[in-house]
Design goal:
Helices cover about 45% and strands about 15% of the residues. By secondary structure, it is an alpha+beta fold. The chain has one domain: PX Domain. A hairpin with a 7-residue loop joins strand 1 and strand 2. The longest helix has 20 residues.
Length: about 160
């Protein structure tokens, strides 16, 4: 008999892409980033997902992960640098890289992966208060339902990926 095949390696690719300025030109403009996730890991409800998040939400996520992770170190976020020399585009690009590195490290960490806030952050477009409500069981849906609901409704990312030259 042949040797049994090793189990397929679990791979999770997470990319932070496509920074966009929202409300451009107004006092409450901000940049959000597309988080594209592709995985075969059992830890995730949806195998591919795509959401947009802003830096402020990353800051919230890191704080929550830290609260729950106990002694497990949570990766750093790129700095909030209010004083920045160089162009805004450079700053946004640096931040994008930093956010991607942050998420790459987070999804490699079993302890952090067990936090359902992380999953809702990556795989649903729920706002921060809605994520909190959902995790505490006060939302209209369970965590899994919220993610599946978003995955079903969100065919947008497929078109977006295909729409590229």
């Amino acid at each position: 008999a042949g040797t049994p095949l090793p189990p397929p390696q679990e791979l999770t690719t997470v990319r932070v892409q496509d920074p966009r300025v929202q409300n451009e030109g107004s006092w409450n403009s901000y940049v959000d980033y597309k988080i594209f996730l592709h995985t075969n890991s059992k830890a995730f409800t949806a195998k591919t997902s795509c959401v947009r998040r802003r830096y402020r939400e990353f800051v919230w996520l890191r704080r929550q992960l830290q609260k729950n992770a106990g002694l497990v170190p949570v990766p750093e976020l790129p700095g909030k640098s209010t004083f920045f020399v160089g162009s805004t585009d450079e700053f946004i690009e640096k931040r994008r890289q930093g956010l991607q590195q942050f998420l790459e490290k987070v999804v490699q960490n079993v302890v952090l992966l067990s936090d359902s806030r992380l999953h809702l952050f990556l795989q649903s477009q729920l706002s921060v208060p809605d994520i909190e409500a959902c995790v505490q069981g006060q939302g209209t849906q369970t965590v899994t339902e919220a993610i599946l609901h978003y995955a079903m409704s969100n065919c947008g990312w497929v078109q977006e990926e295909e729409g590229r030259p």
